[in-house]
Amino acid sequence: QVRLVESGGGLVQPGGSLRLSCAASGLIFRSNDMGWYRQAPGKQRELVASIRSSGSSNYSDSVKGRFTISRDNAKNTVYLQMNSLKPEDTAVYYCTNNFYWGQGTQVTVSS
Known about the structure:
By secondary structure, this protein is an all-beta fold. The protein contains no helices and 10 strands.
């Protein structure tokens, strides 16, 4: 079965960095478009960044210039490098191939 397992979340101070990873199994990873979403308490889940099987990527305006999505097809893994983190980036971050979802990883930005 398809599994998406996120890791790399944690507590970081404003201005800090984190790198999230999402390890995929049970699918032909290189053929899948992948995305990172986030959901803050009391808010709807929102798209943060996506990367197509071709490697082209898109970002929400709120993270453009600070976050970078990438993929390693040899490792069946998609990454989200998050720099210059802000308190408003605090959320649970989810990985998806638009059909299946991971369990999420908590990111908390606080001093």
